[in-house]
Amino acid sequence: MNRSIKFKLKNGKIVTIRRLKPDDYDAIKKYYTEFNKGPSAKMVFEYPGSPIGTKDHMVQKWENPNNLCVAAFDGNKIVGCAQICKIMPDHPFSGRNAITGTTLLEKYTSMGLGTKFKQIVEKWAHENNVHKLSAETFHKNTRSLGNLLKQGYEIVGILHDVAFIDNEWYHQYNLEKILEK
Amino acid sequence: MNRSIKFKLKNGKIVTIRRIRGTDYDAVMKFFDKFVKGNGAKFTTQYPGQPKKDKEKSMALYDNPNNLFLGAWDGDILIGESTIERVAPDNPYFLGRTGVTGTAILDKYLSNGLGSKFKKYIIQWALENGVQRLEAEVYHTNVRSLGNLMKAGYTIVGIKHNVACVDGEWRHQYILEKILEK
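Above: the input entities. Below: the structure tokens describing the complete assembly.
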């Protein structure tokens, strides 16, 4: 994905989706600071005050040709992010697997953006010789789980008691989608 | 585990088991060079010609108190290692309660009781360090490791398909866990 695209949310608002660039570092910091304070944060293992990567670290990840990191912008504000990263791109036997992840600010959920992100990620995966997509989500994150299943992912594992949040044990689903052989 | 102990293999040979320190980096690299020339390359994600791990990062990993890297030594030569690394010890939800475990042993030292001994020490360390859940992953073709993990009380909780394509055949990977206590 090399160009930015306009996407109309279900509420009629238009957002711009494009690859993250080095100049976006401050915007992404603001995004994560806001996201980590919201109710969705605990569903993706984040919490208020979660450390945010350094600029060098983030930019290296965004510019790595083995990854695609995109964001949705409402004006200049980032309102959602999605990424796909090849897990061991140089590995001679396992270089074609990738892990995916999506986060959205609470008020931009249920607007079709998560589905759009997943389509962009999957298109990139096809174009970049990825064989299999993997994702992980807490069992309580029913919205994410539902979206992943809708996109053709299958649950292949459940890890029990991986986190203890608000006096409850959380389990983690492992999901995958095989694209081609 | 802070002291070294002597352990008698089933073949009568005595090896020393002790913590791997940052200063053991060169010995660990030599170990993996040998390991990938044997069955290691068939049954783990290691492969011949793989790049050497970053020295500084590896040394920090071995010396990190949130991890235990155990080595078995035949004289000065490292012949097996077993590790446990706590996941996200600083995250308030995870608090390092999960420890990811792994074991690698040179072919000629296999089936000598070393794997079981390693697992006992790893579980003991986990219990002493607040780890409540152990996790491991193993290729479906690695029946020896799978058998040892199940003997040690791990259960299969998932299978990742097509994680590697070796000699034209897809390898799957079992995910295993063992809950220690709450």
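Note for the figure: Chain A is about 25% helix and 35% strand.
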